[in-house]
Specification:
The chain has about 325 residues and is of the alpha/beta class. It has helices at about 5-15, 25-35, 85-95, 115-130, 145-160, 185, 195-205, 220, 240-255, 280-295, 300-315, and strands at about 45-50, 55-60, 70-75, 100-105, 140-145, 165-170, 230-235, 260-265. It is built from 11 helices and 8 strands. Mean pLDDT is about 95; it is low at about 300-315.
Length: about 325
């Protein structure tokens, strides 16, 4: 771990910004420019495709993928971002796991406010299932707003009587549109990326007047997580959204869900994007890849596990 690396990234994220709220076109352009500086790993290839009614980006290892699919939901506050802006994250997960990933280009606010994004991510999951994919070989992953979508898409899938995916990985997830977490205040000023005001500006575009007190908008406050798959929540201490993850972990445990809360000190929102620059980012992605690899169940792996169990049992006969 490097204090110098963390200091450099903190300074980078604290560059002067406009004092007034920006129009959505400027927000999108700034986000694209920032994410274009993130490193994309070697050894992957990308293909434009569709998944359900929406465009998607297929990310695969160049040497061939293992059985298993990551369904990825990009960040951007529901108003910006795309599969291309998230490529450093999807690419690193693919490179580390050997699985393929579909990154969904869901509709954005304000043109398409809540619940358009959830409708699109649910449609993408349904398309994978309709194509014959086994849910035990599918995992949801996402960052920021997309991290929130990993949870709300599961809620929508359960309501539609669809099976749960094998696991959820959420990086710095936004899980509370009510903004009632203590870290919204205790991390104010420490967070180099967000303020309550900046979050409120983009949230208003997504909410479009809707009450944030709904499970699909504030699952950390209101959602029933019964029956959810195992969850990995990764977050940094320098985030106003820190308590979105800490409270979600507590809520998941209370519902009997296997959950890992992975907190890294002195790093910002979606620090995993800085893979190749920040040691903590690479280490966190390694842990996320291990988590995913342990939970995706494929026929070959299930057969191997059954064979190992039978072999072990025979030793006691």
């Amino acid at each position: 771990m490097s204090k110098e690396q963390r200091t450099m990234i903190d300074a980078l994220l604290r560059q002067p910004r406009p004092e007034r709220p920006q129009p959505v076109e400027a927000i999108r352009a700034g986000f694209r420019a920032m994410m274009a500086t993130m490193r994309v790993p070697d050894g992957i290839r990308t293909t434009a495709t569709t998944l359900g009614p929406r465009p998607a980006l297929l990310v695969e290892p160049v040497d061939g993928a293992r059985a298993g699919t990551i369904l990825y939901f990009h960040g951007g506050g529901f108003v910006s971002g795309s599969p291309e802006t998230a490529l450093s994250l999807t690419g690193n997960l693919v490179a580390r796991t050997g699985f393929r990933a579909y990154s969904v280009d869901y509709r954005l606010a304000p043109e398409h406010p809540f619940p358009a994004a959830i409708e699109d991510t649910l449609s993408a999951y349904r398309a994978l299932l309709d194509s014959g994919e086994d849910p035990s070989a599918i995992v949801f992953a996402g960052d920021s707003a997309g991290g929130g979508l990993t949870v709300t898409t599961c809620l929508a899938a359960r309501a539609a009587n669809l099976p749960m995916p094998a696991a959820i990985v959420a990086f710095s997830a936004g899980l509370d549109a009510t903004r009632t977490g203590e870290s919204m205040d205790t991390r104010a000023g420490i967070d180099p990326f967000f303020t309550r005001e900046s979050l409120g500006h983009t949230a208003a575009m997504y909410l479009a007047g809707q009450d944030p007190h709904q499970p699909l908008l504030s699952p950390v406050v209101l959602a029933d997580l019964t029956g959810f798959p195992p969850i990995l929540l990764q977050v940094g201490t320098n985030e106003v959204l820190l308590d979105d993850s800490t409270r979600m972990a507590a809520r998941a445990r209370a519902a009997g869900v296997d959950v890992v809360l992975d907190i890294t000190a002195d790093v910002p929102h979606v620090f995993q994007s800085f893979a190749g620059v920040l040691d903590e980012a690479d280490e966190a992605l390694d842990r996320a890849a291990l988590f995913l690899g342990q939970r995706i169940r494929t026929p070959d792996r299930a057969s191997a596990s059954a064979g190992q169990c039978a072999s072990s049992a025979s030793e006691f006969v």
